[in-house]
Amino acid sequence: MTLPQRSPAQALPRSSSFAQRPYARPAVPGQPGQRPLGVRPAAHPAPAQPMAARPVLERPAPRPAVSFLTVMEVADIMRVSKMTVYRLVHGGELAAVRVGRSFRVPETAVRQYLAGARTDVA
User: Fold this and answer.
1) pTM, rounded to two decimals
2) Quick check: 94 and 110 in contact, CB under 8 A?
């Protein structure tokens, strides 16, 4: 179908391959890494060893669940202010993990700190 011309100039003829995909060059034989045209790589490569010959990997032992406390919860447990907990965390006396702009303290770190902070009174 041809469209009407807006100017009196002649319409230029177009080749028959207009708007088709460009021609793909064939691979040069003998070059490594090249595959013939039309051949796709396998989705899953064949295993190097048969399944029976592969060693069975053992699952690692399950880790104990770590319970994290907020600074406010630690302050309530220790019966101190939040500022005191922040001082302990920033001073390195109490281990903590930073999550965004807040800190989370592992429950085991609180127990260890309290166990080490005890003093014998005579």
Assistant:
1) 0.47
2) yes
Handedness of CA 50, 55, 57, 58 (dihedral sign): positive
Q: What are phi and psi of 87, to 5 degrees?
A: -65, -40
In whole angstroms, what is the distance from residue 47 CA to residue 57 CA?
16
Q: How many CB atoms lie within 10 A of CB 94?
A: 23
Task: Tell me what pLDDT residue 61 has.
Answer: 87
**Residue 96 backbone dihedrals phi, psi, to 5 degrees:** -150, 160
Instruction: Provide CB contacts within 8 A for 65, sequence distance 6+.
Output: none
The Cα 108–Cα 110 span in angstroms is 5
- Specify the pLDDT at position 41: 64
The encoded tokens of residue 101 equal: 């702009």
Q: How many residues does the chain have?
A: 122
